[in-house]
Amino acid sequence: MNAILQAHALSKRYGQRQALVDCTLELPPGHVVGLVGPNGAGKTTLLKIACGMLAPTTGRIEVLGEQPNGAAVQLARVGYVAQGTPTYASLSVADHLKFGAKMNPAWDAKLAQARIEQLGLNPKQKAGKLSGGQRAQLALTVAVAKRPELLILDEPVASLDPLARRDFLRHLMESVAEHDTSVILSSHLVSDLERVCDYLVVLVSSHVRLAGETDDLLAQHHRIVCTRRQESDLPVGLKVISAEHTDRQSTFVVRSESELPAGDWSAERLELEDLVLTYLEWPVDHGAGSAGTPMQPTGEAQ
């Protein structure tokens, strides 16, 4: 298996609304993939298609080498925690573990029990009486204990306070490290993604705008400040992601897959949050003018 997820020209339409457009993406195994984008960008739609909960309108997708179709064998290989980390309010913690054991042939009862004890959850407590952080941890426990090859998490910490988020992410990384699970984590919180993710996908206006290993993307992007000039005056090979001008000064965010050439400017690398916000604020390829042919980032929709 060369990829945990491969999508080609994937699109999903709800009536007249296009939720996902021409999504072409390949995610390698062994990563914690951060999926980020504004509300309505198509993140949840993509994840539901990957889980077999939705069928694409056009295009194709493979998850763990198979087309997601809701079959028991496929479902057993993928753990999914939906947005809001849903649990059954009337069921106890122990009932959730019993249900997980019944539904998943590879269920790891020792792992589930150890996590519940580590978290200090009362097995007799109804899920509806748990705090938001405890419900999130219970949902994660059920997902991890099925021993999936791929764990998909859709905004699992969005409603949690900072301490609960930190605890959730710490337990997530412990499980990933121990069981060598690939993860796709959707979140609005870039600081959380920076803490745990080593691969980034930016989804904007239902299109994949950027995808690649986080360290590589950060190394390829720079902010340069110089005397006012046109994009066409920049060296060949730079892709301009954003451009801002005053009467005397120009500020560009550029991408270069080779070393940034020397120039009469000041240059600095972007932090992850700055990188993400740049692509969110400039949702359409800005183009590179005569500075060269725009590059297509790994996984970007064509």
Question: Can you walk me through this structure?
Answer:
This protein has 302 residues and is α/β, with parallel strands linked by helices. A 6-stranded mixed sheet has the order 5-6-7-3-8-9, with helices on both faces. A 4-stranded antiparallel sheet has the order 11-12-10-13. Strands 2-1-4 form a 3-stranded antiparallel sheet, with helices on one face. 31% of the residues lie in helices and 28% in strands. The protein folds into 2 domains: 5-205, Rossmann fold, CATH 3.40.50.300; 215-291, no CATH class. Helix 3 (93-103) packs parallel to helix 5, helix 4 (109-119) runs antiparallel to helix 5 (132-145) and helix 5 packs parallel to helix 6 (162-179). The chain contains 9 helices and 13 strands.
Put the structure in a nutshell.
This is ABC transporter ATP-binding protein. The chain folds into 2 domains: 5-205, P-loop containing nucleotide triphosphate hydrolases (Rossmann fold, 3-Layer(aba) Sandwich), CATH 3.40.50.300; 215-291, no CATH class.
